[in-house]
Specification:
The chain has helices at residues 2-15, 21-30, 39-55, 68-80, 136-144, 152-162, 177-199, 214-227, 229-235, 237-247, and strands spanning 57-60, 95-99, 103-104, 109-110, 116-117, 121-122, 124-126, 132-135. The protein is an alpha/beta fold. Strand 7 and strand 8 (132-135) form a beta hairpin. 36% of the residues are buried.
């Protein structure tokens, strides 16, 4: 209780300060989704990312020197997922590790999902009980192009949300049996639809990587929900609706 009080007090003090002008410039220049947001959501995002930047342990890897530009760009992407959630800032996450570009796992590296890979270059990883690891080159490239349906920050932090129930299995925490049944029904149908189209070499709106498993499907669907919401709503309305209800956001209406 005492530590919760201290955390709330520290956060209130932080948010009472003026938002740094340089940080606003980083948002305007780097984060394409920021400029789509309604004004009130922009304010929420600025508050959220300040807390996120302050409370995480940031580590530059592979010789990367961390800057406010890097921290703000990553934090903004993560906090977009939280705009419909009050008083939560990925509190279970302690560290964010950032490489200058795609990083190669060492031989016999144990992945977050228990799969052994060898010499695989990654743009991002999210560990169930550990850090998020990102390639700055990929983060910036994705943030600058908010309409291509791919965003490594959204993807990896969607995995962290997925894991809040103790498992990264593609089903994030849901309230009530009805919500879970609806979620499972829609996700199973949409996952099978994507898997089928990928197996037949057909074009897909959702990234084909989402057909790998249900955890990746949730992360890929999240990317598309925020980056290509109008197309997702038109072509996969049931999927759009459950994501809208889960995230408590309606990105198809942004800048409408």
């Amino acid at each position: 209780m005492f530590f919760s009080w201290l955390k709330r007090r520290r956060r209130r003090k932080l948010l009472a300060e003026s938002f740094p002008r340089a940080w606003e410039e980083h948002l305007d220049r780097n984060v394409g989704l920021y400029n789509r947001l309604p004004r009130e959501d922009q304010r929420k995002l600025r508050d959220c990312l300040r807390i996120f930047v302050a409370e995480k342990h940031w580590v530059g890897c592979g010789g990367l020197e961390l800057t406010d530009q890097i921290r703000v760009t990553i934090a903004a992407g993560a906090c977009i997922l939280l705009l419909g959630i009050d008083d939560y800032y990925f509190d279970h996450l302690k560290s964010v590790l950032v490489y200058p570009d795609a990083f190669v796992q060492p031989p016999e590296f144990q992945s977050p999902y228990g799969v052994v890979d060898e010499d695989r270059a990654n743009s991002g990883e999210a560990w169930q009980r550990g850090p998020v690891i990102l390639s700055w080159e990929d983060v910036l490239c994705d943030a600058l192009d908010p309409g291509d349906g791919r965003n490594v920050v959204l993807h990896e932090f969607a995995h962290k949300i997925d894991g809040l129930d103790g498992e990264m299995g593609g089903t994030p925490p849901l309230h009530g049996a009805g919500a879970k049944q609806r979620w499972n029904r829609v996700i199973e149908r949409e996952f099978q639809r994507l898997e089928d189209r990928v197996s037949r070499g057909k074009a897909t709106l959702l990234d084909r990587y989402g057909a790998s498993n249900r955890a990746e499907f949730f992360a890929v669907a999240t990317e598309c929900f925020f980056e290509q919401p109008v197309r997702l709503q038109r072509r996969h309305p049931a999927l759009y609706d459950i994501l809208r209800d889960f995230y408590c956001q309606h990105p198809a209406a942004w800048n409408a």
